[in-house]
Write a structure and sequence with these properties.
Elements (H helix, E strand, L loop, with lengths): L4 H22 L4 H11 L13 H23 L1 H6 L1 H25 L4 H11 L4 H10 L7 H25 L8 H32 L6 H21 L4 H12 L5 H25 L3 H6 L1 H25 L4 H10 L5 H12 L7 H33 L2 H16 L5 H38 L3 H24 L5 H9 L4 H26 L4 H17 L1 H18 L1 H9 L7 H8 L5 E6 L11 H4 L1 H5 L2 E7 L2 E4 L12 E6 L1 H12 L7 H6 L2 E7 L11 H4 L1 H5 L2 E7 L2 E4 L12 E7 H11 L6 E3 L2
Helix pairs in contact: 1-2, 2-12, 3-11, 3-12, 5-6, 5-8, 5-14, 6-16, 7-17, 8-9, 8-15, 8-16, 9-11, 9-19, 9-24, 10-11, 14-15, 14-17, 15-17, 16-17, 19-20, 19-21, 19-22, 20-22, 20-23, 20-24, 22-23
Length: 764
């Protein structure tokens, strides 16, 4: 029988991946390395093992793998997290990425690799691996440490920067040159589309999922999620962006829904499958001859990644106002490159932007840096102690004063707050207006005017379009004009008033411009006349109470969907919603922070009350919240018990939380596999013999349930069968009794009740 090469190649990939990953798991090494080794083994470079037949088919599987990897990253990303990462992550990420790109570019040029290869090399080595860092911190038991919040914030922003780099690569695919003007235009286009996609997506998709919730089981949720992902992929490709961007954006939209955790759990096996195929395909691209030839550049780039990340991350984190210990711990965790380096290299290779040797070189660098990641994280402690001893005292005092001043300083500029709010409002609503106008000008207006000729069609097309954008235009002009910041500035100093009026005037002119654009595209009239009409329409929008109400309803709906997970959680308990972020801001200067933990099903604390565990006095840790399914218990009392899979939000220092995590990890002794096998429950049959002492006794009197913990589930008597007989039923001679229980227990029971009962056979 003929088997498609696609199936045989997939079988070979998964078989090789399963073998290598089991070996790497046994060696306690990252599974990603096992995938890459599997790819090397089944590539054409190795002759002693079977080889994949169709490289093109594998490239297709690999592309699918990239899509689902980016979709899963989007589910973990959440743009709301982006706004909460704080100044530290923002400053550090910009510092790291900017200088690592420059450093990689200079290293590439010094190796004689040309401008394009060098720029892409800088992009590849500027991104740390989210997957590897999270895995390493979990393995080392450091997820509860304070510095991990900084690391995760940097990783979130680096994921976004990686998406920008992918756009840059796509932009240069045609010209093979990095043109500044075109690059800026494409980045602006990217930001515009991300804003539109996220706004419309968050407005409609959570509502859609909420209305369809009663139809969503695991199967339908998986299909709906993947269809949304691939639908956004197709849309992104249609408007000129990469499939990876579309998958990432849809993942980040779904991350804001109530179903996000469920979707992430259901999609995870799909992501793992195709992710494995992608990383195996990465290993297949490795050329051993190239590695041997470029051994020296590989060493140089590896050292560049390690030293560059440590140096620039330290400077960036210190510049943001964090302590020296925080900077060293964070920087030593970022010394590797991973999945985004592979994706950038694969895209650059497919678009012929990089030379063939660069792909295997960057894979080799990634393998080395991934391998040493756990050791680098462990080294951060001794490195911090060494620097603390060697650093001049005046430098140390300056760093500590700088860190404290950043933590205690608060911005009191009302002007700054007002302008930031207005810029955010204008940017979001303007993007929505532009999107609606582009759709209308390209599709809606031509369709209406082709069906209804003359001024009636023009009036209908322009009127519907202006009505569609009117709530957003009203928000652009009037939003924040009655805010407390605006009233404070207006009343506190009369010199503020010209600036406040100017803010309204500029936004009014923007509204006129948007309205005029539609009128000019629809009517063949004088521009002056159309400007007057647009001014009148903008003024009417500004004072319209109906538009104000519509704008408020739309905004509230959007904010409700954006915060739906928090609203759901806060409504589960009347104790209120605990604001983790706000408390963290106030306690950070005292080295106290919040961390999440999950209780293992075998933990020794299960079933115990908090007052008996006494974590506060023994460990100095405060249990702030207990999340149990969809329920959340904030500030739990001493009578509250802990149950398997409870998620605990606890407050303490790094050392206290580490001790707390270690105690939660203590488990009851688990029985060996052989013991489990002996205690398996089975269905067995007992025959009541002529001289059996069970004859004449009821099921209750026999002690079968109480003594042997077994159940009588049936009795066969005179060719009749009694299923689930009552406990008052009496046994008779010749009965065939069906019992469920442990085989050994049944044997002990029967020998105790009547030594003549020997007819025990295992049911088939």
């Amino acid at each position: 029988m003929h088997i498609s090469p696609l199936i045989s190649d997939l079988a070979l990939i998964l078989i090789s991946a399963s073998i290598t990953t089991l070996i790497f798991k046994w060696l306690k090494q990252p599974i990603v390395l096992g995938y890459i080794v599997a790819g090397c083994l089944i590539s054409s470079q190795v002759s002693v093992t079977p080889t994949v037949g169709s490289t093109e088919a594998i490239n297709t599987w690999s592309d699918i793998g990239v899509i689902f990897l980016l979709f899963a990253l989007g589910l973990e990303f959440s743009f709301k997290k982006l706004f909460n990462v704080g100044k530290t992550a923002l400053i550090a990420t910009l510092f790291i990425v900017f200088f690592m790109v420059i450093l990689g570019f200079l290293v590439g040029l010094s190796l004689g690799w040309g401008v394009t290869n060098s720029i892409l090399l800088g992009g590849m080595i500027s991104m740390s691996s989210t997957t590897i860092i999270i895995k390493a911190l979990d393995d080392l038991g450091l997820r509860s440490q304070k510095f991990t919040n900084v690391v995760f914030g940097i990783l979130i922003l680096e994921d976004l920067m990686a998406i920008l780099i992918l756009v840059v690569i796509s932009t240069t695919a045609v010209s093979k040159e990095f043109e500044g003007g075109e690059l800026i235009l494409n980045i602006g286009k990217l930001l515009f589309f991300i804003t539109v996609w996220l706004t419309f997506g968050i407005f409609f998709i959570p509502t859609l999922l909420k209305k369809a919730k009663r139809f969503l089981n695991e199967e339908t949720t998986l299909i709906v999620s993947l269809s949304l992902c691939l639908g956004m992929v197709l849309f992104a490709i249609q408007v000129g962006f990469s499939s990876a961007l579309g998958a990432f954006v849809m993942g980040s939209i779904l991350a804001e829904t109530i179903e996000s955790e469920n979707i992430e759990r259901i999609v995870k096996p799909v992501k793992n499958l195709f992710g494995a195929i992608f990383f195996v395909s990465v290993g297949m691209m490795v050329n051993f001859e190239v590695l041997q030839e470029y051994a020296f550049p590989i060493i140089i780039i590896t050292l560049t990644v390690i030293v560059g990340q440590i140096v620039f991350a330290n400077f960036g984190i210190l510049l943001s106002g964090q302590s020296l210990k925080m900077a060293i711990q964070s920087s030593f965790s970022l010394t590797q490159i991973g999945e985004f380096a592979f994706i950038i290299a694969a895209l650059g290779s497919s678009l012929k932007l990089i030379d063939p040797f660069l792909y295997p070189v960057i894979v080799a660098v990634s393998v080395i840096t991934i391998f040493i990641t756990p050791f680098m994280i462990k080294l951060s402690g001794p490195a911090n102690e060494y620097v603390e001893k060697k650093i001049p005292l005046e430098w140390k005092d300056f760093i500590e004063r700088h860190a404290f001043s950043h933590k205690s300083a608060l911005s009191n500029s009302v002007w700054h707050q007002l302008i930031v709010q207005i810029v955010r409002i204008v940017a979001v609503y303007s993007a929505l207006v532009i999107a609606i106008e582009l759709l209308s000008v390209n599709y809606f207006i031509p369709f209406v005017t082709s069906q209804i000729h003359g001024w009636p069609g023009q009036l209908l097309a322009s009127g519907v379009t202006i009505l569609a954008i009117a709530p957003f235009l009203r928000a652009i002009v009037a939003k924040k004009n009655h805010s407390k910041e605006y009233h404070y500035l207006w009343g506190s100093n009369r010199y503020n008033r010209p600036g406040l009026v100017l803010l309204i005037l500029v936004r009014f002119l923007m509204s006129m411009a948007f309205t005029s654009f539609i009128l000019i595209k629809t009517f063949d009239l004088g521009i002056g006349f159309l400007l007057i009409i647009s001014a009148v329409l903008s003024a009417l929008m500004m004072v319209s109470k109906k538009l104000k109400l519509s704008s408020i309803i739309i905004e509230r709906k959007f904010l409700f969907n954006l915060n739906s997970r928090e609203y759901e959680m806060s409504m589960k308990k009347d104790k209120g919603f605990f604001k983790k972020g706000e408390l963290g801001k106030h306690l950070s200067m005292y080295d106290l922070h919040l961390a999440d933990f999950e209780i293992s099903p075998l933990s020794t604390c299960i079933g115990k009350k908090l007052k008996d565990l006494n974590y506060r006095k023994r460990l100095g840790v405060h249990v702030v919240s207990i999340i149990r399914g969809e329920d959340r218990i904030n500030i739990p009392g001493g009578e509250e018990q802990l149950f398997p899979t409870d998620k605990i939000l606890a407050l303490g220092t790094d050392e206290q939380l580490k001790n707390f995590e270690d105690e939660l990890a203590l488990t009851r002794k688990s029985p060996e596999n052989e013991e489990i096998t002996k205690r398996e429950v089975c269905l067995e049959q007992i025959e009541i013999k002529q001289n059996s002492k069970l004859a004449g006794h009821t099921i209750l009197q026999s002690g079968i349930r109480d003594n042997a913990k077994c159940l009588v589930v049936g009795i066969e008597r005179n060719q009749n069968t009694m299923v689930n007989p009552d406990i008052s039923t009496r046994f008779e001679k010749g009965d065939l009794v069906w019992i469920v229980g442990e085989h050994q227990k049944i044997k002990e029971l029967t020998s105790h009740q009547d030594k003549d009962i020997v007819s025990i056979v295992e049911a088939k």
